[in-house]
UniProtKB/TrEMBL annotation:
Keywords: ATP-binding, DNA-binding, Nucleotide-binding, Transcription, Transcription regulation. GO terms for molecular function: ATP binding; sequence-specific DNA binding. SMART domains: AAA (SM00382). Transmembrane segments: none annotated. InterPro entries: AAA+_ATPase (IPR003593), AAA_lid_NorR (IPR058031), Homeodomain-like_sf (IPR009057), HTH_Fis (IPR002197), P-loop_NTPase (IPR027417), Sigma_54_int (IPR002078), Sigma_54_int_dom_ATP-bd_2 (IPR025943), Sigma_54_int_dom_CS (IPR025944). This is Sigma54 specific transcriptional regulator, Fis family.
């Protein structure tokens, strides 16, 4: 499931270093021997591998089989048990028997499944798999699933796989994030860990890198991360947005001009390519590069030399090229809008950014990261996200990816009326099926509704509404302020 998405996330096209990535990338974790197939009597382990088995009616024979294979099995018969058994510092594998839990238990199970330190495998029968809620939980939180009935040996094999994956995510450096100056890339899902590994490998080469990904997925951040980890880090990182500069200006922007090259060229101007000498040139939105500029860029890539407009001198420039686009360049090539030869020069190494909806638990991790960064934008003390907000974040499709998540969370920080950001604050109320809320939140909602109804019944005559509600006029006035029910035109009608 998630691992297959990461396998396609990085496609090395050439380069010996990346051949290493290719062999690792194409290796399924099932083929990886370490934690999966370690024989029972093999070298003594410092600690037994922990396995959390969540089932309302656990299969005793399965527990015995897993124990005999060296697992230390903890059985959770309810969502509450899962919460109690998960230890924040212990990475473990998990089995969740979806077939044994009724639909009403699913919201409770979700909190346990969301725990970053457990690599979950789901068991489900065909009826439960028909339930969209079960399918969503498996898609979001589990490494894999099996249809029951299934041989115990298969389950043992898959949990070994999940255990290996969860340790793999944890063991790689850097553990969770990759730091880019004062900004950082957050990600723990396999697709992002794979991306971080690729960034480190790609950074050591001088080959051109082509980054593709939907809008807002972090293409520019990745380009910067590659530069900052490369031997060129002390030289400039020069971005140019090929789509934002008028076509007739692009040539002079890229290659610069000499004094007198055209009317208004009062002095020599150094182009972006030359400005990046010794460093990295980031050609953003390369798909928007007009044909004429494609030809001159190709010439530069072939010769490593530029000529300023109006100049006669060939100037050698040493830059590393990273390019990015959110458009389908293969399509543009087949329609003749993008030169194939240029594409092959630009795309020696390829990085595909995973869309946010494929990043599983990272959605929540990123949301908390953004909240931590921007929470001082609000005078209120915002503590986190309400369950409805978390659920909506996992259900929503995120067409604008991380950028959209940042915008929604920042807006919610300003809009939130309670200490927890709700699905409504994120403007995603329709993506939250179960409007779970704390008792305090439920009281708040009920109170607001009752006041609104009373005001409506009494056409905003406060004395009458207050009598109806059994409170004083002063209290009603205060509560209206708390709930944002006072309108600027004056509250009290007809008194
Ligand atoms: N993994 C991540 N961790 C933290 N922040 C991220 C991550 N990925 C992206 N961002 C943030 O999301 C925003 C969008 O990222 P970026 O500009 O790199 O995306 P992009 O793919 O270039 O977008 P576009 O296609 O719109 O140009 C930035 O503010 C960036 O800092
Ligand atoms: Mg960008």
């Amino acid at each position: 499931m998630r691992e297959s998405s990461h396998l396609s996330s990085v496609t090395p096209l050439a380069g010996s270093r990346l051949r290493l990535a290719a062999s690792r990338g194409s290796e399924t974790s099932a083929a990886r021997p370490a934690a999966v197939d370690a024989p029972r009597g093999a070298a003594p382990r410092a600690r037994a591998r922990v396995l959390l088995y969540a089932a309302r009616t656990p299969d005793d024979a399965l527990v015995e089989q897993l124990k005999s294979r060296g697992w230390s099995v903890l059985v959770a018969r309810s969502a509450h048990d899962i919460g109690k058994l998960i230890k924040p510092a212990t990475l473990c594998a998990g089995i969740v028997d979806m077939a044994s839990f009724p639909a009403r238990d699913l919201p409770g199970l979700e909190a346990g499944l969301r725990q970053q330190q457990v690599g979950w495998i789901a068991l489900a029968n065909p009826e439960r798999l028909a339930d969209p809620a079960v399918r969503r939980l498996i898609r979001h939180y589990c490494f894999d699933y099996v249809k029951l009935p299934v041989a115990h040996a298969t389950i043992d094999y898959l949990v070994g796989h999940a255990y290996g994956m969860i340790h793999l995510s944890d063991a790689d450096l850097p553990p969770d994030t990759t730091a880019v100056s004062d900004d950082e890339m957050v990600g723990t899902c396999e697709a992002m860990q794979q991306l971080f590994r690729t960034i480190r490998k790609v950074a050591n080469t001088d080959a051109s890198v082509f980054i593709s990904g939907e809008s807002g997925t972090g293409k520019e951040l990745t380009a910067l991360a590659i530069h900052e980890r490369s031997p060129r880090r002390k030289a400039p990182f020069v971005p140019i947005n090929c789509g934002a500069i008028a076509h007739h200006l692009l040539q002079s922007e890229l290659f610069g001009y000499e004094r007198g090259a055209f009317t208004g060229a009062n002095q020599r101007k150094i182009g972006r390519v030359e400005a990046a000498n010794g460093g990295t040139l980031f050609l953003d939105e390369i798909g928007d590069l007009p044909m004429e500029s494609q030809a001159s860029l190709l010439r530069f890539l072939q010769e490593g030399k530029i000529e300023r407009l109006g100049g006669h001198e060939s100037i050698s420039v040493d830059v590393r090229i990273i390019s990015a686009t959110h458009v389908d360049l293969e399509g543009a090539m087949s329609e003749g809008r993008f030169r194939q030869d240029l594409f092959h020069r630009l795309c020696v190494l390829r990085v595909d950014e995973p869309p946010l909806r494929a990043r599983g638990k990272d959605i929540e991790l990123l949301a908390h990261h953004i909240l931590g960064k921007f929470k001082t934008d609000s005078a209120r003390k915002i503590r986190g996200f309400a369950p409805s907000a978390i659920e909506a974040m996992y259900s929503y499709h995120w067409p604008g990816n991380v950028r959209e998540l940042i915008n929604r969370v920042r807006r919610a920080i300003v809009m939130a009326e309670s200490k927890l950001i709700s699905a409504e604050d994120l403007d995603l109320a329709q993506f939250s099926e179960q409007q779970t809320m704390s008792l305090a939140q439920a009281r708040e909602v009920a109170e607001k509704r009752a006041i609104e109804a009373a005001l409506l019944r009494h056409r905003h005559r406060l004395n009458e509404a207050a009598v109806d509600l059994g409170i004083s006029r002063v209290t009603l006035y205060r509560l209206m302020s708390t709930h944002g029910l006072r309108d600027a035109s004056g509250d009290d009608k007809g008194e």
